[in-house]
Design goal:
Shape: globular
Structural class: mainly beta
Largest sheet: 6 strands, antiparallel
Order of helices and strands: HEEEEEEEE
Radius of gyration: 14 Å
Number of helices: 1
Helix content: under 10%
Length: 115
């Protein structure tokens, strides 16, 4: 899946741009059947947003799913060679699986679904 994103300030994605991409896979608004995903953590540095975590309820009681955006680079104890969106599943607070959902190509400004 590809998506051109308008170039944000200094080429970095804004929170709104990241939420727009995440909304393909995560419900950001409540409906009659599901609660919206909630922003659990949001971190920025002098260049802007580098981490955004959204959490939603899983299909079974005690299950949650985390969608995480991380900008390429070193951010404290965390580092990544690519700008990514990853997904991690939890059962009663313990991780049960995860994968990289999409990667962002800075040169073309295109997200590519990898999973």
């Amino acid at each position: 899946m590809e998506n051109n994103i308008e170039k944000g300030p200094e080429g970095f994605l804004t929170k709104e741009e990241v939420l727009k991409v995440l909304s393909r896979w995560v419900s950001l608004e409540a409906d009659a059947e599901t609660e919206p995903a909630k922003i659990r953590r949001e971190l920025s540095d002098e260049q802007g947003l580098y981490l955004l975590e959204l959490e939603e309820e899983g299909e079974q009681p005690g299950e949650t799913v985390e969608h995480m955006y991380m900008r390429k680079g070193e951010h404290g104890k965390n580092a990544t060679g690519k700008t990514i969106i990853s997904v991690t599943s939890y059962k009663d607070g313990m991780p049960t699986g995860g994968y990289t959902l999409a990667t962002f190509d800075e040169a073309s400004r295109i997200w590519t679904k990898t999973y």
